[in-house]
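Troubleshooting log. The previous structure file for this entry was overwritten by mistake, so regenerating from the original sequence record. Sequence copied from the archived sheet and checked twice against the printout by T.R.
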Amino acid sequence: MSKKPASNQSNRIRRSPYYEATVRHGATGFTVYNHMWMPTAFGAQSKTYKALTERVTIWDTAAERQVQIKGPDAEKLMRLLTPRNLDNWRVGQCKYLLLCNRSGGVLNDPVGLKLAEDRYWLSIADADMLYWAEGVAVGRDLDVTVSEPDVSPLQVQGPLATELMRELVGEWIEGLKFFNFCKADIPTSAGDAPVIISRTGWSNERGYELFLRDGAYGDALWERCFELGEKYGVAPACPNQANRIEAGMVSHRADMDETVNPYELGMDRLVDIDQAQDFIGKAALRRIRDEGVRRKLVGLQIAGPGKGVGGGQLELIAPDGARGLVTSHAWSPRKKAVLALGFAPIDHAYTGARLRALTDDGEREAIVSNLPFVITTKRQSMPLAA
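Regenerated output below.
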């Protein structure tokens, strides 16, 4: 995490349409994500966690850039990029996708939006997937245009998210189903801000994403959210480590990268080897499925207090000496415990298995736990259900 960017920051790193607003509202830390400044803190994490889990929060996630795939061969390209079966994908629906390389490794895990039969958005994690998609299109000589549209997501997350959304667009928002989206215009001081609203978000709470389709309205849209959200205790926030681990939500570059395959992640349902459609990594993923994996992503509860665990990844040791890895961890205010995600050796990847995590203050017991750790009213299963 970096501190607030200096005023003379390089133009190579872009500012989101909400950047100035986030600074006014107290952003205390930024990182670079998809070549753009993204807020990582608004004061103490405990404070924003409380706002996220009890009220409603607004996040600048414009760095979650969109890769637009449009044209007669748009569906062909989409099917090549992901091992998920897309047969029943309808316009107006979102899908959680994995994009894999030829070895079956995960390059990205975007949420896809189907805007038309010949037009899709991939809402990507931190990686240059536009160039990957363009390269695949050129290599296969597909009649398709790959581009980055002027689209900047803003997330509304928290148990009172629907109340705020009602203020923004009307009561009809209550009928928007999980992992579906629709177009809308939100009145602001600068005029009607054109958005696509999806019933999605990177938290364990009820939430929405506002995909602003014209960056000129960014500041006004942010302020409108705070004006109407004041009665609900709205607060500025950003992705929260503890909250997403409670939900069992994996993070690209933290919990997975191109060295990790979908079967190790336990995301078998997002791979359809038996479909007639060819896709990148199909042969490798078939081999991995048939041979089995040597490790698997699990939830872990690490004994002891939050202090002294350390930062970054931690080594994991099984009773028989087999090694694993803790990829993400955080103190959970709800569980009053250190919760983690990590890869356990396959013979120890069962609920109740006892391993040891090597922390900064020594070895601690790490017990394999069911995911998600916390079930909220947002969903009744893991956040990869759609």
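The longest strand covers residues 323-332. Archived copy saved in two places this time.
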